[in-house]
């Protein structure tokens, strides 16, 4: 879920309680996480930004290799060698809840009316050149954007979601797209929402163009990875949409 405190609704300095899964701000005296640890005797917390573990209320860092599975699920990483072999193996992975799944073929939670967006995101996650680019965060981590530009949030969230969909060590055989969809709502100025059904083709067109622009592409001159993969020689993100998603005849 979106990384904000369940009490203050702040995104700053948020910790996850590893007993109940709720998010709380801070770990100092009188902070929400501190109070939660005292009242409910829940003592192990994870900083969602630094990925460090702490014991509260004693407030000391926990260093234990057995907790690495948790940090990997939050932030999966892929080597170039791993990415190169993704399409050459069909090995099933076993989630921690016991279910088996094929990385990349993973369900997305339907929060309310976001199935139209889920279908598009899952389809894009299986376009190899686009997938490979976003699985390596270093490809776009250092792209310069103007101060206050929120559109690059789409790039970051799409990369995070892509890595979770292809994670071979997931806790469950499905993934929550909540943070990705929150970015969509914000960056589209609520034209596409979680609570209201949208048109999949319209969403695909907007999303690809938004990624293309956020990665530094333009309609006429500059190209981006998104434009290169789906836009053909011109580098724009949409020319091939009519080929990828031809109009569907209406049912009688």
TrEMBL record:
Say yes or no: keyword Magnesium present. Answer: no
Q: Which InterPro entries match?
A: Papain-like_cys_pep_sf, Peptidase_C19_UCH, Ub_carboxyl-term_hydrolase, USP, Znf_RING/FYVE/PHD, Znf_UBP
Give the UniProt keywords, A-Z.
Hydrolase, Metal-binding, mRNA processing, mRNA splicing, Nucleus, Spliceosome, Ubl conjugation pathway, Zinc, Zinc-finger
Question: Which SUPFAM superfamilies would you find in this protein's record?
Answer: Cysteine proteinases, RING/U-box
Q: Name one GO molecular function term.
A: zinc ion binding
Q: Which GO terms describe its biological process?
A: mRNA processing; protein deubiquitination; RNA splicing
Residue intervals of the UBP-type domain = 1-81
Can you say where in the cell this protein is located?
Nucleus
**Where does the USP domain lie?**
106-252
EC numbers listed for it are 3.4.19.12
The record's SMART domains line, in alphabetical order, gives: ZnF_UBP (SM00290)
Indicate the family of this protein. Answer: Belongs to the peptidase C19 family.
Protein name, UniProt field: ubiquitinyl hydrolase 1
């Amino acid at each position: 879920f979106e990384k904000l405190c369940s009490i203050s609704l702040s995104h700053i300095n948020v910790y996850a309680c590893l007993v109940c899964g709720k998010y709380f701000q801070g770990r100092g005296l009188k902070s929400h996480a501190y109070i939660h640890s005292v009242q409910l005797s829940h003592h192990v917390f994870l900083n969602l930004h630094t990925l460090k573990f702490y014991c509260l209320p004693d407030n000391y860092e926990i260093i234990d290799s057995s907790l690495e599975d948790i940090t990997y699920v939050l932030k999966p990483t892929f080597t170039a060698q791993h990415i190169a072999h993704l399409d050459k193996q069909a090995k099933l992975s076993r989630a921690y809840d016991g279910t088996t799944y094929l990385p990349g073929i993973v369900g997305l939670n339907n929060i309310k009316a976001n199935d139209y967006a889920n279908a598009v995101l899952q389809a894009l996650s299986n376009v190899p050149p686009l997938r490979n680019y976003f699985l390596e965060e270093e490809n776009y981590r250092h792209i310069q954007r103007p101060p206050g530009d929120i559109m690059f949030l789409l790039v970051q969230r799409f990369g995070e979601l892509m890595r979770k969909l292809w994670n071979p060590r997931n806790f469950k055989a499905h993934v929550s797209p909540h943070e990705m969809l929150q970015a969509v709502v914000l960056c589209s100025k609520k034209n596409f929402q979680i609570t209201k059904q949208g048109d999949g083709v319209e969403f695909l067109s907007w999303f690809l163009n938004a990624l293309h622009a956020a990665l530094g592409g333009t309609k006429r001159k500059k190209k981006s990875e998104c434009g290169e993969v789906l836009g053909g020689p011109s580098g724009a993100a949409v020319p091939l949409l009519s080929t990828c998603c031809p109009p569907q005849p209406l049912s009688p």
